């Protein structure tokens, strides 16, 4: 386990000092304290920060009808949106 001081950890990660401190306090990254109280951050723990999975973006399609008399059109709109964006979440609304 290689330990680096805070300035080097900031340089390696691009995170702020405050973010590193909070991550160390909540256990997201490992760190040790020197006898004088300075934090030394584990480089392996810092490297895993970039490997965490970002949330997958969601595509949302919105279909709108101006009245309930056009309800058949809604089914066509939804089918068309599904054909263009198969993974999308479809939201629809019927106006007044």
TrEMBL record:
The organism encoding this protein is Moorena producens (strain JHB)
Question: Any idea where the HTH merR-type domain is?
Answer: 10-41
Show the GO MF annotations.
Answer: DNA binding
Keywords attached to this Swiss-Prot or TrEMBL record, sorted alphabetically, are: DNA-binding
For this protein, the record's InterPro entries field holds: DNA-bd_dom_put_sf, MerR-type_HTH_dom, Recombinase/Transposase-rel
Which protein are we looking at? MerR family DNA-binding transcriptional regulator
Organismal lineage = Bacteria, Bacillati, Cyanobacteriota, Cyanophyceae, Coleofasciculales
Q: Which GO terms describe its biological process?
A: regulation of DNA-templated transcription
Query: The organism sits in which domain of life?
Result: Bacteria
């Amino acid at each position: 386990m290689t330990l680096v001081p805070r300035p080097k950890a900031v340089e390696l990660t691009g995170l702020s000092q405050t973010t590193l401190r909070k991550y160390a306090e909540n256990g997201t990254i490992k760190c040790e304290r020197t006898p004088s109280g300075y934090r030394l951050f584990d480089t392996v723990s810092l490297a895993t920060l970039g490997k965490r999975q970002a949330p997958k973006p969601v595509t949302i399609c919105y279909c709108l009808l101006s009245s309930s008399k056009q309800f058949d059109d809604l089914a066509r709109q939804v089918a068309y949106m599904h054909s263009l964006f198969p993974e999308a979440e479809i939201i629809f609304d019927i106006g007044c």
